[in-house]
Each structure stands twice: as C-alpha cells, then as structure tokens.
Model the fold of this input.
Amino acid sequence: MPVSLPLGMQTRSEFPIFANNARMGVEGRTQPLVYLDSAVSAQKPRAVINAMSHFLEHDYGSVHRGAYGLSVRASQAYEEVRERVARFLGPSVSASRIIFTRGTTESLNMLASGLSQTIVDAGARIVVPLMEHHANMVPWQQAALRTECELAYIPMVGKAGEALCLDIEKARKLISRNTRVVSLAHVGNVLGQVNPVKEITALAKAVGALVVLDCAQSMTCFDDDPFSWGVDALAFSAHKLYGPSGIGVLALSPALLESLPPFLFGGGMISNVTLEGSEWAGGPARFEAGTPPIVEAVGLGAALTWLEEKGRKAIHAHSARLATRFREGLQSIKGIEVYSPETGEETIVAFRHEALHAHDLATLLDGSNVAMRAGHHCAWPLVRFLGVDALLRASFAAYSDVDDVDIALDAIKRARLG
Ligand code: PLP
Done:
C-alpha cells in the first residue's frame, strides 16, 4: 500500500495537474498553479486516475447485463463501490440504501420529484434555507409549483463576515405541523458556514417531517453519520471528493427507499415489462435506469480509499487553518470585505473588494496562475441577500499549502496596485 503523504505540498505531488500547469511569468519566474477552487471541484490524485485507467484497460464491461467474464467482473467492481460508499457513510448504512446518480443535483431532483408524488400536497410546506445552492432550491420550487404547496425559506441572521448563520428562531416557527420536508446543506457552498443540522433535524422530527441533507460540501471534512442524527436522505458528488465528475450518491433511509417512486424509466430499473405495463425492481436498481457511470464508480471507490487514508478530520483541520490564514491576510488589504463567518471551522473564504468587481479581480488573479471562482456561486438568493452581485471564493483542500495563501494574497495586493 502506498505511504500516505502529509497534507499540503507533499500531498500535491500525488496530483499530476499541478506539475502540468505551472506557467512562466512575465519576469521569467515560474508561477505554480494555485488552485483555490476545490469547492467547485477538487483535483484528482494519481490513485483515482490510475484506478480508472486500469479498469478501462483490464476490466471494462457493462454491468448487470452479461453472463460473460468481463461483465461479471465489472458488475462486481460496481457493487463493491456501493458497499464502499455505505462503509464510508457509517456502520449503520447498508449498501442496499446507496443509489448512484450523476451527482448531488440529480440526487436532489430525484427526491424532490419523488416526494412531490407521495407526501407533499397542497396544504403542505417544504422548508429550505435561503442560503442554499440552486441545486437544493430549484427542485423544491418545482415540487411546490407541481403540488401547489408552500415553500418557506429559513432566513439568515447575524453580521456578514462575523457570525452570519441560519436563523434558528425563524426555523423553529417555520417547521410546523404541516411541514413535510426540510432540506438543507450541511456546509454552505458560498460562505462555508457549518449549518446546525442536528438542531434542525430535531425540529423536523418533532413534527414528523423528512430531513434531506445536501452533503456536497461536507463529505470531504466530516465523518459523522448523518443518519444517526435522524436525517432521512443525503446527497453528494464524487467530483468534490477528489473523485471523477459524472457520479454522485443518494443515500436513503430504509423507509424512503421503499416509498420513493422512480425518477427515470428504462432498462435496469424494472422487474418485468409487458405491453400493458411494467413493474419496478427493488432496492437501488429502481433508481438506476440505463447504463450507469461504471468507470466513474471505480474512480469514486478509489477516491474514498484515498480520502480515508488521509483522514477527513485531518483534511478539515488543515484546510480550515489555511482558510484562517487567508482570511487574516485579507483583513490587512484595504477595501476588502470578508463575508464568511469566523468560527475557525470554515474551509471557504468569501470576499470582495469594494471598488474592484469580483470578476475583474478573478481575471487579474488568473494572470498570476491563481484559480479562484467569482460570481453568484449558484446561490442567487444568498448573494442578493448579502447586497452584492458577485463574490470571490477561495476554498482549500488536502493539497493546498501555506504558499498558496501567500501567493494569492500577494496577487490580490498587486491587483489593487496595478
Ligand atoms: N449543493 C452544494 C452545496 C454544492 O456546493 C453543489 C456544487 O457546487 C451542489 C449542490 C451541486 O453539485 P453538482 O453540481 O455536483 O450536482
């Protein structure tokens, strides 16, 4: 088994993207790639790249469709990843509750669509925080339109840059007897705040509502089992976990697995088809119509192994330390406003300059080979609530290093002088 390298610069040597993307600066100095956009998608370690290309070169076949060796091997590999994901989520989670999807967005659409056919009706309420990513807002808006139910938003409270968080008092009022679903992110994708999931789950459970947890931003850092808190469904994407794009997970409670109607129809999700109608397969197969993301599943399995070797808690502590250093550095730059809260848990820092538009600053940073996202971050309602049209967001990961922080801060200072 390969030795697990310490986080930061040494771990970076496991990621070929960095060696392939250094640039020559104007003064003839090499500019390393400073990748501060891991919250949008993490880079991939060699372990993941190798696992996927090895599978393609030696074992590729379609799954659950052939009696021949390759198909049987591919099916075994695919199902082993389902078991791997279940172990990753916690000892109480069985593989039969793990559905492979294209990503968090598809997982949440699957839920919103299914629940609008079962437990959500006119007279019901769905509760979603205002700060959600569009992936955890628009599907619920559509569900509310279809069913004519109410969609209520949990507002934010506190001062931006210090302690902006979900307004738990308002949540207490909104989560009432007619609430059927509460859907929230574990960690916010714009500000990086860690939401009080246990508290919100307890409020939802007290009125018999289902809790859906968007773990797109939290799976790299937290190793708790959200089902042990009473959460009914959770979603995440492999590409933010150092794995490939094109695959994600929807994990369901046993009751939801039984009751949720299928989302896509076709091959693989049926137990019988006649000219008169069809019957659905049981378990996760009911939700996996069509040829699934087979190679991507192999990559996801390798990513989880890699992640667990590094340790999610260690990655969290490392990334949060770098975020704090970055934030402290920003505070000494005139005209910068920081929007993320300051609890020391955040691995994301959202900020802007009062005079330089976020998009312009991001373009100037790219001139120093610093990759940082600017814009609304797929969270228009939150960005509007903050009273801005765009923010920059620096996000830190296992391969981020103190050098990245210092280079990015220096580039921001120089952008202001230029
Ligand atoms: N939810 C959150 C909190 C996210 O950060 C993202 C992606 O940035 C998503 C959902 C959507 O994930 P995907 O694009 O992988 O479906």
